Predict the 3D structure of the following.
Amino acid sequence: NAGVMQNPRHLVRRRGQEARLRCSPMKGHSHVYWYRQLPEEGLKFMVYLQKENIIDESGMPKERFSAEFPKEGPSILRIQQVVRGDSAAYFCASFPGNSGNTIYFGEGSWLTVV
Amino acid sequence: GENVEQHPSTLSVQEGDSAVIKCTYSDSASNYFPWYKQELGKGPQLIIDIRSNVGEKKDQRIAVTLNKTAKHFSLHITETQPEDSAVYFCAAYRASQGNLIFGKGTKLSVKP
């Protein structure tokens, strides 16, 4: 997990507020994944991004969720008008973009909606 | 798309015994199969991986085997220790699509 930085580690939001989760990939990595993990469940793919490009967002809910990975700065997962069902751990993973390299995860951001 | 099945969902062993976790995948184009260990409150940590041109890989007490024909791969942990207790996830990756698809996880408990 060394090198993939996520913040905040814990975030509490009231229903209807916005949550922004940030991910800085490992140095030299230009590709980022976001996964969601509900309590006691597995890792569900949400979105796959390259810098300035969304490659696959087939796992993203159609409404309220968006992701970006700008040319400069971290990748951001944005959840608007949060609901209690959004409470989960959100994990970011990065890799260089070469299929021969491994994919490393960050320590996650735990979102609690009250 | 790819579908990864993982069994068992829970596994309890005595310290020193071996543990085996099995996964099957559906997409024959998948070519990379990592295993992750996740401890409570932490992110998934890569413990071993195998590529489709290799049948077996070993790293100390951990080994992974891959049967491309049958489309299944397994994690073997020998001489288990209490600190091996965690949730283990298998995954399959297809370079052309770029997604890493996970199994549902196996909760391993090693009893001292």
Remarks:
- The radius of gyration of chain A is 13 Å.
- Chain A touches chain B through 25 residues (CB under 8 Å).
- The mean pLDDT of chain A is 92.
- The CA atoms of residues 36 and 42 of chain A lie 8 Å apart.
